[in-house]
Write a structure and sequence with these properties.
Layout lengths: L2 E9 L4 H11 L4 E9 L4 E5 L8 H7 L5 E4 L2 H15 L19 E3 H7 L6 H7 L10 H9 L3 E3 L2 E3 L7 H25 L6 H16 L1 E2 L2 H26 L7 H10 L9 H8 L4 H14 L4 H9 L5 E2 L3 E6 L4 E4 L15 H9 L3 H7 L3 H7 L11 E8 L2 H10 L2 H8 L4 H10 L13 H11 L5 H6 L9 H14 L1 H20 L2 E4 L2 E6 L2 E5 L5 E11 L5 E8 L5 E6 L1 H23 L4 E6 L2 E7 L4 H8 L13 E6 L6
Parallel strand pairs: 1-4, 4-5
Antiparallel strand pairs: 1-2, 2-3, 6-7, 8-9, 10-11, 12-20, 12-21, 13-14, 14-15, 15-16, 16-17, 17-18, 19-20
Length: about 650
């Protein structure tokens, strides 16, 4: 046996959408109903496990055999669920020596969903079938069958009740066919995507991602429970206060609050932070206070404590928080469940003291010392992640990674030299733009902010609008002055500006000529309806069905098909500077994964953008972790990397 394609149907009393896969499968009421599988090029067999059918020994052994490639469309689901099934029924097959412990080693488990994302395509079996114009193998009754057989319909003596075969024999047989058809659809998708194989190095990164997801990160559940309790108490008090002041039945309702403001002569379309800030500039003290209380009441970030409680497994570790290749245009990760990528920053002093007050239930002290309790709870979310006893966290991240990468790939030498010398890039940029020395908190230090905003806004072709979004509006400069700053930045960075144009021309030529075009360390190629950009790591970015057209400015633009911000498949427009952004972020992602692989013998428990969180012994030093992170891969010769870090007793930003 070389390949095993799998699809399973399962049931559990846990809501997987709220609690995640690992909690779902951990439930004592979890079970596998069916498994359909195909060995090599044989026939598809379906086994009704819940009704006593047994898997052949060769299939059981293949699950733990690293020489057999196991495939499924969302293979993490199959691997984790089968790990639990085998642990309960065939414990001798699990490799319990593996450092993650109770899950099947992810090596040789390859995911067709990840393969599809690698090609810039969709993340669901049904959507991939539509995209590739494959005959729909999924049955329209699928959702109703899953709802009927896979979720509890009631409860008896504390035990969930599930429908079974004897309740609806014909529907059970339909469900069995549905399970088989998923494998048929997977096989047709495989026939297409296998024309463009995923590099083995990317699968190795995927295996590392699976180990990190399996390991999870420890949650201070006692603190999280108390935080939820305090939030409920505070929200009740805020609601009563706002009801008293406004007379509204539900003062947390944006519709009701907008109507109340309208009666006060204030018309608003939104009540987001920016809109509230603008209203407060001219509002009466009464309105300002009402809006302040409303913002506290509507703060949603503290809901992450609830998510922590839902997603935490029996050993108090939260698992499954990272989605490999979640951003399929660059290959970067996406967050799931608690989403470390979207945690509020912490700026409070005495974090440990405030956390301990909440954990011990000293809510009066919290209220006495802080006017905005919801803000305190929000800023303390990170601290709920803790290392085990006698361990610590080391948090390390790349310094100015995208600025370094674009300078390196575009050969903007003065920038590279500034990084090699350890200079502040915002000061170096301002100095280059204004032709004077600029030192942070020193000579011409006031120019640093202009350099910073220009750096953040201009690297990928941004102009006045980008300058304003990055803080340029706070400089109180006219549009003409901001436009001049953009022009000055571009004059100071001619190689980056040239790189945008070279990337555009290379992509156009590859599409028009159906050919391959080299651009220094990059390679552009058009293959069977996909534009590929090969990065220095040899990983490729993919753009489906690219076309060239004249935009409204009379310039060439490129369209391709992909997923927009609303998660819809549609036609998207791109251009040289936008390609440059994808390339830069793609290379930054490859550097992060190289560092993670270098550090994989350490206990990596999380990563956020360009940051790695390591759970380690007390004697491990920050310097040793940073030096490992700074190692440059062979394909990135001459790229000056720098990592900074710190140790902490709980997760936080320093």
């Amino acid at each position: 046996m070389k390949y095993l394609t799998i699809d399973i149907e399962t049931r559990s009393d846990i809501d997987i959408t709220k609690c995640g896969l690992y909690r779902y499968a951990e439930s004592p009421y979890f079970d596998i109903l069916f498994i359909s599988c195909l060995i090599d090029n044989g026939k598809i067999d379906t086994y009704d496990l819940i009704n006593g059918e047994k898997l052949p020994d060769e299939v059981l052994l293949a699950f733990a055999d690293e020489t057999v490639i196991k495939k499924a469309f969302h293979v993490n689901f199959e691997r984790v669920c089968l790990s639990v099934y085998l642990r309960r029924n065939y414990a001798n097959l699990l490799d319990l020596e593996d450092h993650v412990g109770t899950y099947l080693n992810p090596i040789a488990w390859q995911c067709d969903m990840i393969h599809s994302r690698y090609l810039g395509m969709m993340s669901s079996l049904k959507d991939m079938g539509k995209l590739l114009r494959i005959e729909d193998k999924k049955m329209s009754e699928g959702k109703s069958l899953i709802a009927y057989f896979c979720t509890p319909y009631g409860n008896q003596n504390g035990n969930p009740l599930f429908h079974c075969k004897s309740d609806a024999w014909e529907d059970w047989e339909k469900f069995k066919i549905y399970n088989r058809r998923d494998v048929e659809a997977e096989l047709e998708i495989q026939r297409y995507i296998e024309e463009f194989p995923v590099p083995e190095s990317v699968w190795e990164e995927f295996y590392l991602d699976q180990w990190i997801n399996d390991r999870g990160i420890l949650v201070d559940t006692q603190f999280a429970e108390k935080a939820v309790e305090l939030d409920w108490i505070e929200k009740q008090a805020l609601r009563k206060e706002l009801q008293k002041r406004t007379g509204l039945e539900n003062p947390n309702s944006p519709i009701q609050m907008k109507k109340w403001l309208m009666e006060k002569g204030i018309a608003v379309e939104s009540l987001n932070q920016k809109a509230v800030q603008k209203i407060s500039e001219t509002a009466t003290d009464e309105i300002k206070e009402i809006l302040r209380l409303y913002q506290q009441l509507s703060k949603s970030s503290v809901k992450k404590y609830d998510t922590m409680r839902n997603a935490t497994c029996a050993d108090n570790r939260a698992r499954g928080m990272f989605s490999f290749y979640g951003a399929n245009r660059t290959g970067r990760f996406a967050g799931r469940l608690i989403q470390l990528q979207n945690l509020p920053q912490n700026h409070l002093e005495h974090l440990a003291k405030r956390k301990n007050q909440i954990k011990t239930g000293d809510f009066d002290a919290v209220k006495a010392e802080n006017q905005d309790v919801s803000d305190v709870l929000s800023q303390l979310i990170r601290t709920a992640f803790i290392p085990p006893e006698n361990k610590k966290f080391i948090v390390a991240d790349f310094s100015a990674i995208e600025a370094r990468v674009i300078a390196w790939i575009a050969k903007e030498e003065w920038r590279l030299e500034a990084f090699r010398k350890g200079e502040d890039i915002y000061c170096a940029s301002a100095s280059k733009i204004f032709h004077v020395p600029v030192k942070k908190n020193g000579v011409n230090g006031h120019l640093r902010q202009k350099g910073k905003i220009a750096e953040l806004a201009c690297g990928y072709g941004g102009s006045v609008g980008a300058m304003k979004n990055m803080g340029g509006a706070q400089l109180n400069l006219t549009d003409d002055a901001l436009n001049t700053l953009v022009d000055d930045w571009r004059k100071a960075s001619p190689h980056i500006v040239k790189f945008w144009g070279d990337v555009q021309k290379s992509a156009e030529k590859a599409i028009l000529d159906r050919s391959s075009v080299s651009l220094d360390l990059l390679k552009f190629s058009y293959e069977k309806g996909i534009l590929f950009i090969e990065l220095p790591s040899k990983r490729r970015l993919a753009y489906v069905r690219p076309k060239i057209f004249r935009n409204k400015y009379g310039k060439n633009s490129i369209t391709y098909e992909g997923i927009n911000s609303s998660k819809k498949w549609t036609k998207l427009e791109t251009y040289g500077a936008k390609f440059a952004e994808n390339i830069t972020q793609g290379i930054a992602r490859d550097l992060l994964l190289f560092s993670m692989r270098t550090m994989q013998n350490l206990q990596i428990v999380g990563h956020v953008h360009d940051e790695i969180i390591v759970e380690c012994d007390k004697d491990v030093t920050v310097e040793s972790v940073c030096r490992m992170m700074e190692k440059t891969p062979p394909w990135a010769e001459g790229l000056p990397l720098r990592a900074d870090g710190y140790a902490c007793e709980f997760y936080q930003k320093m």
